[in-house]
Amino acid sequence: MFSSAWRSVATNIETQLTAAYFRGSSNKLRLQLRIAIPSGAGSIRRRFLAVPPKLRKVGLRGMHSTLEDVKLESMQVKILPALQDNYMYLIVDNKTREAAVVDPVDPELVIKTVQEANVTLSKVLTTHHHWDHAGGNEKLVKLWEKELEVYGGDDRIGALNKMVRQDDSFTIGSLNVRCLSTPCHTTGHICYHVTAGDGKGEGAVFTGDTLFQGGCGRFFEGTPEEMYEALCTKLSALPDTTKVFCGHEYTLQNMSFARHVEPDNESIQQRIEWAKLRRASQDPTVPSTIGEEKIWNPFMRVHEASVQKHAGGATDPIITMGKLRKEKDNFKA
């Protein structure tokens, strides 16, 4: 009976636990819980949960997705699940074995993966300052035995030592990285476009909370105009074959809204069925591609008549963007 009660409580507290940990804590976090036990099942009025400082897995129940490797011609991307639905990514240059990590909120898992892969970690790519993306930066820098370059576009990012702006560039071994400034979710949000040094082969873009598979981030610090610029001008201009690695496992929720917007779009329904199979075995649904997002993501389809009609009929894509986001904020799948 206690284990059943605990399961119902665990779902509600796991996010708070991880948030408290990454915001800073002592050796143990202690949360006082009141658990209601049915009459006759014994008397357990209060329990105290001692949470160890290493929250490697999601909450207390295991990773939300399997660890996977995506192999491209010039690079390997290791998909690392974190927290309740976040993704971190280890980017490895195939030629030099130099590596960079994107949004390392779980430093211990990052270090373990780097050591097992026998690669040289030199850089941290931070998409934005929110704790579930940047909250592990300072700890990783402290734990890592060598100096790390920590990139980002916002001085609210912990351990930042390489501030970047639109079109700034750097390298990961032989790979080229171009920074795309995509303010809206936060004012300092950066997406990272990674390509081979010779420009050949598939590229990858790490979009944090700007572009999700089938959706986009909330407009916490921005406007519909800014999200339109980010999605429909900057990211849409990347090659259609570019792999999209986003910050969260939100695909089924987002695609449910996409189907609501365009119920006759067969590509959306096909992706939903595919994603259901993936999630049934806890496999990640990332990556998609820029070309695919143009086919099924309503926020990248604000020029389409079907999407504009759903949003009230206005032919201005920016008005459509704003109305879609407002509707999505209150949408229940």
TrEMBL record:
InterPro entries cross-referenced by the UniProt entry: Clx_II_MBL, HAGH_C, Hydroxyacylglutathione_Hdrlase, Metallo-B-lactamas, RibonucZ/Hydroxyglut_hydro
EC number(s) recorded for this UniProt protein: 3.1.2.6
Pathway assignment: Secondary metabolite metabolism; methylglyoxal degradation; (R)-lactate from methylglyoxal: step 2/2
Cofactors demanded by this protein: Zn(2+)
SMART domains found in the cross-reference section: Lactamase_B (SM00849)
GO MF: hydroxyacylglutathione hydrolase activity; metal ion binding
Coiled coil ranges: none
Sorted UniProt keywords: Hydrolase, Metal-binding, Zinc
SUPFAM superfamilies registered for this protein in UniProt: Metallo-hydrolase/oxidoreductase
Top-level enzyme category: hydrolase
Family: Belongs to the metallo-beta-lactamase superfamily. Glyoxalase II family.
Annotated protein name in UniProt: hydroxyacylglutathione hydrolase
UniProt organism field: Drosophila pseudoobscura pseudoobscura
